[in-house]
Specification:
The protein starts with a helix and ends in a 5-residue tail after the last helix. It is mostly helical and about 130 residues long. Helices cover about 80% and strands about 0% of the residues. The radius of gyration is 25 Å and the shape is elongated. The protein has two domains: about 60 residues, no CATH class; about 45 residues, no CATH class.
Length: about 130
C-alpha cells in the first residue's frame, strides 16, 4: 500500500510532467518562453496544480461547474445498490425516532419529515 502511494505518485508525476513539457511546451513558443527549463515547469506545477485541483474539486462538489456531480452520484448508486436498497430502508425507523426526540425538544423537523415521506414513497415503505 505504501509502495504504491509513496513511490508511484512521484514517478507518475515526473512521467506526466516530462511528457507535457517536452511534447507540448517545448513546441509552443509562448509557453517555451515562460518555462525555458524543465525545472521551472516542475516548480510552477508543484505550486499551481495542488490549489487548482482543490479548487476544481470543490467547485465540482458544489455543482458550480456542471451537473457532473449528480451524474457521478447516479453512477455510484447504480454501482452500489446496497447503499440504497438495503441501508436506506433500515435507517428510516431510526430517523423517525430521532424526529420524535427532536420534536420533544421543540426542534422543527418539517424538512426531515419531508425527506422521510419521500424516501418511504420511493422505496414503497409508507403505511399510507
Amino acid at each position: 500500500m505504501g509502495y504504491s502511494l509513496y513511490l508511484s505518485f512521484p514517478v507518475a508525476f515526473i512521467g506526466y510532467a516530462s511528457s507535457i513539457y517536452y511534447l507540448a511546451i517545448r513546441n509552443l513558443p509562448f509557453l517555451d518562453g515562460i518555462f525555458p527549463h524543465f525545472y521551472t515547469f516542475i516548480i510552477a506545477s508543484l505550486f499551481i496544480l495542488p490549489p487548482l485541483g482543490i479548487l476544481l474539486g470543490w467547485l465540482h462538489y458544489k455543482k458550480a461547474l456542471s451537473s457532473f456531480f449528480k451524474a457521478e452520484m447516479d453512477v455510484q448508486t447504480e454501482a452500489n445498490p446496497y447503499a440504497t436498497r438495503i441501508v436506506t430502508p433500515v435507517n428510516i425507523p431510526s430517523m423517525k425516532i430521532m424526529v420524535q426526540l427532536a420534536r420533544k425538544h421543540g426542534i422543527d423537523t418539517s424538512e426531515v419529515d419531508k425527506i422521510i415521506r419521500e424516501t418511504e414513497k420511493k422505496f414503497g415503505l409508507s403505511n399510507h
